[in-house]
Amino acid sequence: MSEPTEKRRLIRRIWDAIWTPTAVLSTGFLLIAGFLAGILFWGGFHWTLEMTNTEEFCTSCHTMETNLGEYRETVHYNNHSGVRAICSDCHVPHEWQYKMKAKIMAVKDVYHEVLGTISTPEKYEERRLEMAAAVWKKMKASDSRECRNCHAFEYMDFTIQETRAADNHQKAIDTGMTCIDCHQGIAHDLPPGYLEEYNHVVETLAEATREIDDDVAAIRSYLGSGTE
Amino acid sequence: MLSFLDLLGTIGASILGLPGILGVALGMMTRNLIVAAVLGGGVGVVSPLLLGGSHSTHVPITPLEYGVALVVGVLAGLIGCTIRRRGATV
After folding, report:
1. How far apart are CA A62 and CA A57, in angstroms?
2. pLDDT tens string A202-226
3. Chain B residues with CB inside 8 Å of A100's CB?
4. What does the entry list as the binding residues for heme 2 (chain A) (predicted)?
5. 3-class DSSP state for residue A79?
6. Which of A90, A103, A104 to mutate to test the interface with B (most CBs of B within 10 A)?
7. pLDDT tens digits for A108-157?
């Protein structure tokens, strides 16, 4: 009986010590110490985050073996220029808030690794279309943001591209298309029925955008009628 | 499931981003809860405008991002103010 009470007292003493104004440390000492501790903490946090961006980390799970094998056959792994795009280059945004969001959402990968959701080739193939559609949805919604960290229409010299590629890139600029509209299987194999699924993803996103636009229009109309 | 994760990710990113960190810092500058909430909320509104979107694409910031940043900013401001009240004599 006495043990929990003593434990509570200890917690209480620590809690009180945290919130009691210090009588032995100067403001300068606290500021400098806090500043240094902040740098150490933030540096450590960022370093750890960067460690989770490495190819070794991404492919350390058994379930990532299939996509690693497929990716190693593509131009993003080996090419004439010697520039390589690793997993995080395509799947982790550079911008801080979106990077953090991607890292938090990646917790589901650990969950499914533990559950063994895609632990066998059969299970993997069963879920391939669903997984691909989830990535396409993100890429379409963000205007292929991660592709554009390396590729940009503005930097392309159409005169040294194949005629077909140059024509299609020009068409993409003219019609406001985004990279993933054409390059769905650029790093991983495509499942059967992928085109129908991609069209479904595009329609779903367009529908969601229409609904938001309708909501905004309704709010504007309500505010407009209220002020009249 | 994915939309829940999406929301969770947006909240987490806001907490670890400007609304969360600057919100707490600004909240710690006042003992007035309303001022702290306004300061935190201000950061919540401004930060998606400053840091949202992307340098390479022109995707508009979604209402969800705005909403989450605002709520996180207000809460962070209030937490900062509570820290000030609890931990400072001035």
Report:
1. 11
2. 999 888 877 777 776 777 777 776 5
3. 9, 12-13, 16-17
4. 87, 90-91, 188
5. coil
6. A104
7. 999 999 999 999 999 999 999 999 999 999 999 999 999 998 999 999 99
Q: Is B4 helix (H, G, I), strand (E, B) or coil?
A: helix
pLDDT, one tens digit per residue, over A2-20 is: 567 888 899 999 988 888 8
- pTM, two decimals, is 0.83
pLDDT score at A228: 46
Tokens standing for A204? Answer: 């779903």
The 3-state DSSP class for residue A59 equals: coil
Alpha-carbon distance A12 to nearest alpha carbon in chain B (angstroms): 15
List alpha helices for chain A, DSSP H. 2-19, 27-51, 55-58, 65-71, 87-91, 96-105, 107-115, 121-141, 163-175, 194-227
B12 has a chain A CB within 8 A of its CB: yes
Residue A186 one-letter amino acid = I
Mean pLDDT, chain A, whole residue set: 90
Residues B52/A96, Cβ–Cβ less than 8 Å: no
Instruction: Write out the CATH class of domain A47-216.
Output: mainly alpha
Closest-CA residue to A58 (of A96, A126, A50, A47): A50
ipTM: 0.86
